[in-house]
Write a structure and sequence with these properties.
This protein is mostly beta strands. The protein is built from 2 helices and 25 strands. A hairpin with a 2-residue loop joins β17 (314-322) and β18.
């Protein structure tokens, strides 16, 4: 009977470990794919870096995801300049400007009066978005522009147009498309004259249709274009050209994503955050706790996602700001795979209530065998600042913490143990 019981306990322990290992593999391998697969920047190849090849005609179509407005994609939508394709770039592009990021940028004519013809008066680069935008959502759009050095005029009409398949019905794609109404317009007062720096053009709009294309350019008639003469070298010529780089369209409510809590062997590499892309990279700033995060705290990196190789358990924080909308997220990296499974069990046994709270919160651990493991507690605000740290003792499976000194907001509670690591819970103070 004893041998049978021993065998039964061994088999149960084996299958439990097997299920725990499967759970661990699913957490480590599958969960991160959720953040990586969620679209951040809807613009395909927003930095123009992905090219078919340097000789692929016509010029704009060398960039994956881009071509001209209209059914005839052999028409120029502008010129693509790549440092690794042209030995004379950027001088061959008519300027001093190197790409804002990467090796490639785009040049488009945005304004030209007589004697210009329909074949060279306007360029409207069109992008096939990664997916249709969602009705009712607010999107933040950005692009960076720099005036071409030989351009005698500067304009303010550098706008964003989102549209459906109707863009493909436009017959003449190189003339003013003044009957179209771009959702985001650069203010008329912002005439972009700079030839040395990249100037940000940005704005937000609420999606109202089934848009799957983005077109850039000046959609005003010549008479309605706001322009200024900045270079008299070209006499009576009236035209304006701009370089464009780093185009993005991002949902302002996109959740921040630092990654899923994971356990690794010390020294193994872990990928944190999202897939790197134009627009979302510059929106994400990373910190490592227990660093106190203030507006002047230097970030350890500014990118959507990156690899780390920790040797001790640690927590990273990402701050994401999209057109003024700020969101935060944290990820914990544990050095013990078994400890991760144990912590997940403990986290399920730990309750924090009421949530939202006012003057106190109550912690309850239903498993009495776990009470002795925990001996201290820390509370951080959503900026990663330590608000309180103290020794704790659970009485009757519960612990009551006074929260009178905490202002309204989101907080993170870390319950520390000697053997199981740290269990984290989020709670809200709302009075």
């Amino acid at each position: 009977m004893y041998k049978l019981l021993k065998s039964w306990l061994f088999l149960n322990s084996f299958f439990l470990r097997k299920r725990m290992l499967k759970t661990f593999v699913f957490v480590v391998i599958v969960f991160p794919l959720i953040g990586l697969s969620q679209i951040a920047n809807y613009v395909t190849n927003g930095g123009f870096e992905k090219k078919y090849n340097c000789n692929y005609p016509p010029e704009l179509n060398k960039a994956v995801g881009w071509n001209s407005v209209g059914p005839d994609t052999s028409k120029f939508g502008g010129f693509l300049y790549a440092i690794n394709c042209y030995s004379n770039a950027p001088l061959g592009a008519g300027g001093f400007q190197y790409p804002r990021s990467g090796d490639t940028y785009f040049r488009m004519t945005t304004f030209c009066t007589l004697p210009c013809t329909y074949t060279n008066s306007r360029y409207y680069p069109k992008n096939r978005l990664k997916a249709m935008l969602s009705f009712g959502k607010t999107y933040c759009v950005k692009m960076y522009v720099s005036r071409q050095n030989n351009s005698p005029h500067a304009i303010s009409n550098l706008d964003f147009l989102f549209s459906d398949n109707s863009l493909d019905t436009i017959k003449y794609c190189n003339q003013p498309l003044s009957y179209l109404n771009p959702q985001v317009k650069n203010p008329t007062s912002n005439i972009v004259t700079d030839t040395l720096n990249w100037v940000l053009i940005t704005g937000t709009f609420v999606e109202t249709g089934t848009e799957k294309y983005l077109a850039l350019g000046n959609f005003e008639s010549n008479s309605a274009t706001t322009y200024s003469l900045v270079d008299t070298t070209f006499g009576t010529s009236v035209w304006a050209e701009y370089f464009v780089d780093d185009v993005s369209c991002i949902d302002v409510d996109l959740p921040a994503f630092a990654g899923n809590d994971v356990a690794v062997i010390p020294g193994d590499s872990v990928y944190l955050g999202r897939e790197s892309d134009v627009g979302i990279d510059e929106s994400c700033m990373w910190y490592k706790l227990p660093t106190v995060i203030t507006p002047t705290t230097p970030a350890i990196d500014t990118i959507a996602g990156f690899w780390v190789k920790p040797v001790i358990s640690c927590t990273y924080v990402v701050r994401q700001e999209i057109c003024g909308h700020v969101k935060w997220d944290t990820v914990r990296i544990a050095m013990n795979p078994v400890g991760l499974v144990q912590l997940s069990v403990v986290e399920g046994a730990l309750e924090v209530f009421p949530n939202p709270a006012q003057d106190f919160i109550e912690l309850k651990i239903s498993n009495i065998n776990l009470l002795k493991e925990f001996n201290s507690i820390s509370i951080y605000n959503n900026l990663g600042q330590l608000m309180r740290e103290e020794e704790v003792v659970f009485e009757n499976k519960t612990l009551i913490l006074n929260t009178n000194d905490l202002e309204n907001g989101v907080y993170f509670l870390n319950l520390k143990s000697n053997n199981l690591g740290t269990v984290s819970k989020r709670f809200v103070i709302s009075r």
